[in-house]
Amino acid sequence: KAGVTQTPRYLIKTRGQQVTLSCSPISGHRSVSWYQQTPGQGLQFLFEYFSETQRNKGNFPGRFSGRQFSNSRSEMNVSTLELGDSALYLCASSLGGGPGANVLTFGAGSRLTVL
Amino acid sequence: AQTVTQSQPEMSVQEAETVTLSCTYDTSESDYYLFWYKQPPSRQMILVIRQEAYKQQNATENRFSVNFQKAAKSFSLKISDSQLGDAAMYFCAYKKPGANNLFFGTGTRLTVIP
Prior knowledge:
The complex is a heterodimer of chains A (115) and B (114).
Chain A: E1 5-7, E2 10-13, E3 19-24, E4 31-38, E5 42-50, E6 53-57, E7 64-68, E8 74-78, E9 87-94, E10 105-106, E11 110-114
Parallel strand pairs in A: 2-11
Antiparallel strand pairs in A: 1-3, 3-8, 4-5, 4-9, 5-6, 7-8, 9-10, 9-11
Chain B: E1 3-5, E2 10-14, E3 19-21, E4 24-26, E5 33-39, E6 46-52, E7 60-61, E8 64-69, E9 74-79, E10 88-95, E11 103-104, E12 108-113
Parallel strand pairs in B: 2-12
Antiparallel strand pairs in B: 1-4, 3-9, 5-6, 5-10, 7-8, 8-9, 10-11, 10-12
């Protein structure tokens, strides 16, 4: 079955603009998580959505937001972009319900460059 | 807060040889999950192996195995018969039950020398 699909793969924005990234999870997966990867801070958890509700949130400013649709597809939005927002944004999906390891499957990422 | 430490920023191994990547973590939980993910230059994170803390038996997946020492909070990855395709960044990650957020280490860049 198809994996986790992230679009766009690459994008360039300027400071002050906003950006929306999209993530389509594996069919049947109801949980979508977002991570930011930078050389300085490494991999950091942004937030997780499950059944259209934000279930968990990392330590990021309010400029970072997300949502999930009824088909489990998710978007994340970053407003008022700063140079430090330049990063690889990774999306991961999982079944999400009940106990267990709930292994996360990652997409290929969206590389955002802020000029 | 949970922390995951990978003390080896870079490692290298000769093709066909064995290499061990180190990972330690800090938690007050008794039940949790540990993972090793591989990130090749293509950037896609790929699950290599996982371990449930309540299982004493070390996980293995083909050429990949772990040495899980719960008391020492250590979770090392052994790659046997290293292949050129094993070259990548390797991340150790921790997850609590009931939560879907992973805490990652800083990664170890593995180079495989032909």
